[in-house]
Amino acid sequence: MLLGSWSSRRLLALSGAVAALALIAAGCGSSSSKSSSAKTKPSAVSTSKSSPAAHATTVTFAYVPYSDDAALFLGIERGVFKAHGLNVKLVPEPSPAPVVAGLASGTDQFGFVTTNVLVDAVGHGVPIKCVSTVDGNQTPNPNGGSAVLLTAPGSGIHSVKQLDGKTVAVVQLNSLNSVDVQELVAQAGGNPSSLHLIALPFPQMPEALKDHRVAAAVVVSPFSATAIKEGATPIAHPNSELFPNGTLTCIAASNSYIASHPAQVKGWYESIDESAAYAKTHRSQALATLTKYLKLSPAAAQHAVLDTDWDTTINVASVQKQEQLLRKFGALPKPVPVSDLFAPPWYTP
């Protein structure tokens, strides 16, 4: 979400971790292909001494809290991950940048990133790969989706082109939302280089809009509902407009962890497949988890947006488009091969 190379903040956060990992042979190991039952409704979880749940490996998952984590939360609650041998410890973070740092340092085994952050990190030498989606791919509805470009109440801004020269909040620089805004402004005939992009956590965006500290912000559910209630105006749904059915979020792991823990990686992506398949037909149950994990009221949780087509297959072409946009706006020094971004079975040369 920044213009140019990685910010000094990210470089400082990651430099020590990357230096440490440079002493380790980082490779991407193979894991088995998806089982044929990966997308079927999960059965009741056994907790006998011989079950995987009885011998689960504890792994940490660093994530950015928002509504599309609901399927994963539901999978944890139902014991799906434990059935695949994983005891998941959740670690909330304000943006994908500290998630990448945690993966690179070995503090966290799995972590949420947007695919733009994945491309940006790998392009700058951070040894991580995507091992699964979060709950599927982007909804194709151009007027829907979780991510909404909102303008401040009473700002008089009613179109993307009017953002020229304005301050726009995004959750992280050089990531999905900043590229979205720059590309939408360019398509509208505006000047993307005139934007003043600032990083701001999603929960702080509604107040920043209300107080006119920013002219606009890319906000996700459930925080967008608060901003709209307080008078913010939606002018675009960037993700669904630019990347219908695209893979915009990933759960990543370090190359060294993927190589040394193939069983845990396989258990992770199979758990995601099962959790998404179940949540697709049990949306109310999935949304109900947001009362616990996002501290929403039961009513607010049921009105949160699940921005997914429920298809957990990686859409490689959409990621290549994001990589091209990162290069277009000066964030990448050179192309990043697809083979550097995804762990098998998602990508096999």
Relevant terms:
10 strands; disordered N terminus; 15 helices; D-Maltodextrin-Binding Protein, domain 2; 349 residues; alpha/beta; five-stranded mixed β-sheet; single chain
In brief:
A five-stranded mixed beta sheet has the order 2-1-3-10-4, sandwiched between helices. The protein has helices at residues 8-21, 70-77, 80-83, 96-105, 115-123, 176-187, 205-210, 223-229, 238-242, 255-260, 262-281, 283-288, 290-293, 298-302, 316-328; strands at 57-63, 86-92, 110-114, 128-132, 148-151, 167-170, 196-199, 216-219, 233-236, 249-254. By secondary structure, it is of the alpha/beta class.
Could you explain how this protein is built, in words?
With 349 residues, the chain is α/β, with parallel strands linked by helices. It has two domains: 8-33 and 42-138 and 245-340, 3-Layer(aba) Sandwich (D-Maltodextrin-Binding Protein, domain 2), CATH 3.40.190.10; 148-242, D-Maltodextrin-Binding Protein, domain 2 (3-Layer(aba) Sandwich). The protein is built from 15 helices and ten strands. It has helices at 8-21, 70-77, 80-83, 96-105, 115-123, 176-187, 205-210, 223-229, 238-242, 255-260, 262-281, 283-288, 290-293, 298-302, 316-328; strands at 57-63, 86-92, 110-114, 128-132, 148-151, 167-170, 196-199, 216-219, 233-236, 249-254. The chain has a five-stranded mixed beta sheet with strand order 2-1-3-10-4, sandwiched between helices. Strands 7-6-8-5-9 form a five-stranded mixed beta sheet, with helices on both faces. Helix 6 (176-187) links the parallel strand 6 (167-170) and strand 7 (196-199). Helix 1 (8-21) runs parallel beside helix 4 (96-105) and helix 5 (115-123) packs across helix 15.
